[in-house]
């Protein structure tokens, strides 16, 4: 038996010790008991809840018939496990006709109930690599080799053209949760830098921006502090213990443009059926057979929203996809974490790479689209909807299936331009040097090409301000509101307004 907690409380699975802020409860480990006692304890778990004061901890137990050894076990008849075979055939038709899926595998109660395409082919998993890295971090955080509160400054981190003092205050935790506030160009594309604020205007930890610079540096930091190459760590910590069928360490290699950033990406190549093993490991709280690969506490940490959907959407507007963000994993979050999606989470990558874990249903879905065919699957969540509708047990559980639209992110905080633009002479009044003590940043503003140009000299960075109203400018979704003296003649400073964050005031010093 393998416990899955749908409670936010932490527990140590190997000892079955459950913890909450109010009281400590220790329960016997069923794996160390006689068979009669095992039956009694597990039956008790299956039927009861643990009550601690006003808190209720509910633990759901699913029958683990097997962990795969060299091969997965296939369900002889998926209908026995509640699957509607006709609807699975309709799903198959939909994928074939309306998607670019190259491989898909569905694991339910430890058995394969559905596959599509080539599940053995090794191909690029895009940003799912980041979720794999999060798994690797766990043991080293817990043994103290990696301190999540250590800063870039303490680690001696710098990059091409340098980092600002405020940027070096970012921590390892900020990197793993995409909140560093460092919007330095990354060596490898595929993030939200296009909608990031200007450098030096955001305090580390205050804003979630999906940022490849964070993720690539997180890979470098892992190697620096663990003493392991990432691919060797995947091989020894995940691939071998999970008996992966297709993993090939020789295929793995780093990539990136070192003229942009010193920190390369760490692309990974997996098969669909080996991705399913990663999901199955996560589903069972880091346990593989009788070995704890990653602690349940760390699984819970990385798959729990660190950034809520609400906070992420506040900056991006209504176009934001409906997830929170944990430590390199995408958990469903309020208002979408209801019914079957309670406690669910995914690894997600470009072109159509997904590892989705749905604990309520004891379900894992691995989905691939091989990018070498120059195509992508943009309707994965339509596929997921149709898959869940094929599970007749959901209707019996009276759980709603929440459909997830995945609109593309758009430019944020657009400000209409209806103001009569100032001439060069009028713009000159804004020129000067401005500083913010909290950010330890000084900007020099000058007139360039009939616009205001903001120079961040220490890092050889500059950006233009677009005028939108009297004393109001914009850049990269941020508003720059200039203040005047009481007589409203002299410019004395400005404040940077970033949606979802406190204003950052800058004082004119010359």
Give the class from helix and strand content and strand pairing: alpha+beta
Shape type: elongated
CATH class of the largest domain: Alpha Beta
Q: Can you identify the CATH superfamily of the largest domain?
A: DD-peptidase/beta-lactamase superfamily
Radius of gyration: 26 Å
CATH topology of the largest domain: Beta-lactamase
Rounded mean pLDDT score: 84
Summarize the structure.
It is built from 13 helices and 25 strands. It folds into three domains: 2-62, no CATH class; 117-397, Beta-lactamase (3-Layer(aba) Sandwich), CATH 3.40.710.10; 424-508, Lipocalin, CATH 2.40.128.50.
Could you outline the blueprint of secondary structure elements for this entry?
Elements: E1 2-5, E2 11-12, E3 17-19, E4 24-26, H1 35-47, E5 50-52, E6 55-57, E7 59-62, H2 85-98, E8 103-108, E9 111-117, E10 123-124, H3 128-142, H4 152-155, H5 172-176, H6 212-226, H7 230-239, E11 269-270, H8 272-283, E12 287-288, E13 291-292, H9 296-303, H10 309-316, E14 330-331, E15 345-349, E16 353-358, E17 363-368, H11 380-389, H12 392-397, H13 424-427, E18 432-436, E19 441-448, E20 451-456, E21 461-469, E22 472-475, E23 478-484, E24 491-497, E25 504-508
Antiparallel strand pairs: 1-7, 2-3, 3-4, 5-6, 8-9, 8-17, 10-11, 12-13, 14-15, 15-16, 16-17, 18-19, 18-25, 19-20, 20-21, 21-22, 22-23, 23-24, 24-25
Helix pairs in contact: 2-11, 3-6
């Amino acid at each position: 038996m393998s416990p899955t907690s749908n409670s936010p409380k932490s527990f140590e699975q190997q000892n079955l010790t459950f913890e909450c802020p109010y009281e400590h409860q220790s329960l016997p480990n069923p794996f160390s008991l006689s068979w009669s006692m095992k039956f009694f304890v597990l039956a008790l778990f299956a039927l009861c809840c643990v009550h601690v004061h006003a808190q209720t901890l509910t633990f759901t137990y699913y029958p683990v018939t097997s962990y795969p050894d060299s091969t997965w076990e296939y369900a002889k008849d998926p209908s026995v496990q509640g699957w509607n075979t006709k609807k699975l055939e309709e799903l198959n038709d939909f994928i074939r006709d309306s998607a670019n899926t190259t491989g898909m595998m569905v694991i339910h109660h430890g058995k394969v109930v559905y596959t599509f395409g080539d599940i053995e082919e090794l191909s690029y998993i895009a940003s799912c690599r980041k979720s794999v890295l999060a798994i690797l971090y766990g043991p080293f955080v817990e043994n103290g080799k990696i301190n999540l509160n250590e800063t870039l400054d303490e680690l001696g981190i710098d990059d091409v053209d340098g980092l600002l003092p405020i940027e070096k205050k970012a921590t390892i935790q900020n990197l793993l949760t995409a909140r560093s506030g460092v919007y330095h160009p990354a060596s490898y594309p595929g993030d939200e830098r296009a909608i990031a604020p200007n450098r030096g205007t955001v305090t580390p930890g205050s804003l979630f921006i999906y940022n490849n610079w964070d993720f690539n540096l997180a890979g470098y930091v892992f190697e620096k502090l663990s003493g392991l190459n990432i691919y060797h760590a995947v091989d020894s910590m995940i691939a071998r213990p999970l008996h992966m069928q297709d993993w090939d360490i020789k295929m793995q290699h780093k990539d990136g443009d070192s003229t942009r950033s010193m920190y390369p990406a760490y692309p990974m190549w997996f098969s669909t059926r080996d991705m399913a093993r990663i999901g199955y490991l996560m589903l069972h709280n880091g346990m593989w057979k009788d070995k704890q690969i990653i602690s349940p506490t760390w699984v819970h940490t990385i798959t729990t929203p660190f950034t809520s959907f609400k906070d992420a959407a506040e900056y991006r507007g209504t176009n934001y996809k409906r997830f929170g963000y944990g430590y390199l994993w995408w958990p469903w979050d309020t208002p979408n974490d209801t019914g079957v999606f309670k406690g669910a989470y995914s690894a997600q990558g470009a072109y159509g790479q997904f590892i989705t874990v749905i604990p309520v249903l004891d379900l894992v879905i691995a989905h691939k689209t091989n990018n070498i065919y120059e195509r992508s699957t943009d309707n994965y969540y339509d596929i997921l909807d149709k898959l869940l509708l094929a599970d007749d047990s959901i209707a019996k559980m009276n759980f709603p299936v929440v459909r997830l639209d995945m609109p593309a992110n758009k430019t944020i905080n657009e400000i209409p331009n209806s103001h009569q633009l100032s001439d060069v002479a009028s713009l000159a009044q804004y020129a000067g040097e401005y500083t913010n003590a909290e950010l330890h940043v000084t900007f020099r503003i000058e007139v360039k090409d009939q616009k205001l140009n903001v120079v961040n000299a220490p890092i050889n960075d500059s950006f233009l301000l677009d005028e939108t109203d009297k004393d109001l400018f914009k850049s990269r979704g941020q508003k720059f509101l200039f203040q005047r003296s009481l007589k409203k003649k002299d410019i004395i400073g400005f404040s940077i307004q970033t949606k979802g964050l406190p204003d950052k005031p800058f004082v004119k010093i010359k």
